[in-house]
Write a structure and sequence with these properties.
This protein has about 190 residues and is of the alpha/beta class. It contains 5 helices and 6 strands, in the order E-H-E-H-E-H-E-E-E-H-H. Helix 1 packs across helix 4, helix 1 crosses helix 5 and helix 4 packs across helix 5. It binds inosinic acid.
């Protein structure tokens, strides 16, 4: 396989997946398939939403389709924002609003434990053929640090490090992140396919 369609319009996810896979595989995303439009992600789990995205897109192309549903789960908030990470402060909320709400909800809270979760779903011709889950544990800090990455990265320090995902070099994040862990499983699965 030398090209892969990822069922996302999130350019940050595509960029990370491309960097993790390396230059031998060319990663395309939904920006090349605008006819797909908005996909309603109304499942209650990361797995469910990842499957909705991969199956929907694989009905429109003969190619193998990979989707990524991911988010941040905070212990003291009973797993929130979780599957609502992109829309935590409301359906049309910006990431600035989502991060501000997270900090507000954790004000005075000493338990800062959190984990990023990524579920990848692989589908072909309308059928899920595999799913993979990756997690990266860490903690939420009190104020943003760093300019890199995306989403909640400036608020998250992975366990074993002293800098946020937004401060660490991209190669470091892409070696340890929830997405990297799930992608390693996907690559192992891919290498077993004929
Ligand atoms: P999805 O597109 O429904 O999977 O939403 C994923 C949301 O989770 C993103 O919009 C981010 O807010 C958050 N998220 C997922 N992965 C990351 C990451 O690697 N860094 C920071 N935030 C992330």
């Amino acid at each position: 396989m030398n090209s892969l369609l990822v069922a996302t319009a999130n350019a940050h996810k595509t960029e990370e997946i491309q960097k993790i896979l390396g230059p031998e595989i060319s990663v395309q995303d939904l920006r090349t398939l605008p006819e797909v439009g908005d996909i309603v992600e109304d499942a209650l789990t990361f797995e469910g939403n990842a499957n909705i995205k991969s199956v929907t897109v694989s009905n429109l192309t003969p190619d193998l389709v990979l989707s990524d549903d991911s988010g941040l789960c905070v212990e003291a908030l009973a797993g929130a924002p979780g599957i609502r990470s992109a829309r935590y402060a409301g359906d049309d909320a910006t990431m600035e609003e989502n991060k501000a709400l997270l900090l507000q909800n954790l004000k005075g809270e000493s338990d800062r434990r959190a984990a990023f979760v990524c579920v990848l779903s692989v589908a072909r011709k309308g059928e899920v053929v595999a799913t993979f889950r990756g997690e990266c544990a860490g903690k939420i800090i009190d104020a943003e640090q760093g300019e890199g990455g995306f989403g909640y990265d400036p608020l998250f320090i992975p366990d074993g490090y002293t800098e946020t995902f937004a401060e660490l070099p991209a190669e470091v994040k892409n070696g340890i992140s929830h997405r990297a862990v799930a992608m390693q499983q996907f690559q192992a699965w891919l290498s077993l396919q004929s």
